[in-house]
């Protein structure tokens, strides 16, 4: 029986295994993941029920072939049975509820397993992998190793990188929280102000949690571009004219000009840019994959924050909460760059350059939470098997260090020698270097199903060869 190892048991790893079970692939599946986040990963294992999805219910099905699967599941819950279906379809559910949905999918898959699949979940951290033509060796932090015929890296998000400052020894302070997805980051608060570094989606969840903890102090946030997150203002609206003008091989400059043209048209009729930018969505992966490294670099340095503003939106009521906190003087948002952080008996002194006036300023806080986003450059990780894989020349990253160099047709990882491994694969966020947008459920569910189909076919064909 062929053995398949899956490193990571969040959405991508879980759904890959679920599809293999549902396809009755005769294989032995082992998933490596911390038991506390299995099936839910970091994204859907929040420490607060007030952390919401930023995509509406009707678009969050785990199955690409059944678009109403999550909506149907929600409508069967006691809290939603008597609610209007169209209302719920366009609402933003709690992340924790989505985590329960994924857990139930997994439990159902195990219950319906016809015995052809052997399934194991190993609660150990993977520290190393080694690849050869015959098998892949996975080594765990307990020193033990396991051999697999195929291995899937579905590792999810890494903790954020520590911002560059003059005195990095500060990061050893107990008042600094590098991982914003752990509840400890918002517990045991004093009345001293809290500084959130980063102004993205995680910052929103962190502010909501601080308020939930009845924190009375001031909340500061800082990032180079300030707070630019927008609410969902045009749910259900589709803009089609831009797509009619997209041509294969268009340059970054041509695409920017095309976007600006249609944004201007939309604004003439009272609409903002988001529906226009959303209309790129079916084409963004192919467009990105065909960009030169220079175009990708230009996008990242000049356009990334604008794209993120238009694409990564939050529920309107979440946005209004932040606006209210800001109006009340409880939330203070800064656009600037950190220079140094030091701690003394008075608190944590933060020195930064204000981007609005160019002046160096300071603030004193009692806690700092890093919400700058997942680290994608494996060489910058403190430790872990991905860092080891790069150092041991097993895999390589793209020029911008966004993910793993991969053949996007097979999801086979491309080794440093330029050859595609036939037995080592990756999907999810590790494909950002190849596809740019590869973290939404819309993308992950398709990747999981496609890869599982390929693995099931390999298992079937190789089993047939053995029999013959």
UniProtKB/TrEMBL annotation:
Residues 6-157 form the FAD-dependent urate hydroxylase HpyO/Asp monooxygenase CreE-like FAD/NAD(P)-binding domain. This is FAD/NAD(P)-binding protein. Gene3D superfamilies: FAD/NAD(P)-binding domain. It comes from Flavobacterium arundinis. It holds the Pfam family NAD_binding_9.
């Amino acid at each position: 029986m062929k053995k398949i190892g899956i490193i990571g048991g969040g959405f991508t790893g879980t759904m890959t295994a679920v599809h293999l079970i549902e396809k009755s692939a005769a294989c032995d599946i082992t998933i490596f993941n911390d038991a506390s986040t299995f099936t839910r990963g970091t994204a859907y294992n929040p420490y607060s029920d007030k952390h919401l999805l930023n995509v509406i219910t009707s678009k969050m099905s785990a199955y690409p072939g059944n678009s109403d699967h999550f909506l149907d599941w929600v409508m069967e819950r006691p809290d939603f049975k008597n609610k209007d279906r169209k209302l719920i379809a366009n609402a933003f559910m709690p992340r924790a509820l989505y985590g329960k949905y994924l857990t139930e999918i997994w439990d159902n898959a195990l219950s319906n397993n016809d015995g052809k699949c052997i399934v194991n979940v190993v609660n150990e951290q993977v520290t190393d992998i080694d690849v050869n033509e015959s098998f892949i060796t996975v080594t765990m932090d307990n020193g033990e190793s396991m051999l697999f015929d195929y291995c899937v890296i579905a590792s999810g998000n890494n903790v954020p990188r520590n911002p560059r400052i003059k005195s990095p020894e500060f990061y050893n302070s107990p008042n600094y929280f590098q991982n914003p997805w752990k509840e400890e980051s918002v517990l045991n608060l004093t009345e001293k102000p809290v500084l959130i570094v980063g102004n993205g989606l995680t910052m929103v969840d962190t502010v909501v949690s601080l308020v939930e903890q009845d924190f009375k102090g001031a909340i500061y946030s800082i990032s180079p571009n300030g707070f630019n997150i927008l609410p969902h203002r045009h749910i259900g609206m589709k803009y089609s004219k831009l797509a009619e003008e997209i041509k294969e091989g268009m340059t970054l400059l041509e695409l920017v000009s095309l976007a600006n043209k249609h944004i201007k048209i939309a604004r003439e009729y009272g609409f903002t840019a988001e529906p226009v930018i959303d209309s790129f969505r079916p084409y963004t992966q192919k467009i990105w994959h065909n960009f030169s490294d220079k175009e990708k670099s230009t996008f990242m340095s000049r356009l990334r924050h604008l794209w993120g503003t238009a694409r990564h939106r939050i529920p309107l009521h979440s946005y209004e909460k932040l606006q209210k906190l800001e109006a009340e003087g409880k939330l203070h948002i800064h656009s600037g760059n950190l220079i140094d952080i030091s701690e003394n008996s008075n608190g944590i002194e933060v020195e930064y350059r204000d981007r609005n006036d160019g002046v160096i300023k300071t603030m004193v806080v009692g806690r700092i939470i890093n919400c700058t986003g997942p680290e994608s450059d494996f060489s910058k990780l403190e430790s872990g098997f991905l860092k080891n894989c790069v150092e041991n020349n097993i895999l390589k990253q793209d020029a911008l260090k966004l993910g793993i160099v991969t053949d996007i047709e097979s999801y086979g990882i491309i080794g440093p020698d330029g050859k595609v491994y036939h037995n080592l694969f990756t999907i999810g966020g590790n494909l950002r270097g190849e596809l740019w947008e590869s973290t939404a459920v819309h993308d992950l569910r398709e990747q999981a199903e496609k890869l599982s189909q390929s693995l099931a076919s390999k298992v079937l064909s190789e089993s047939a060869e053995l029999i013959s």
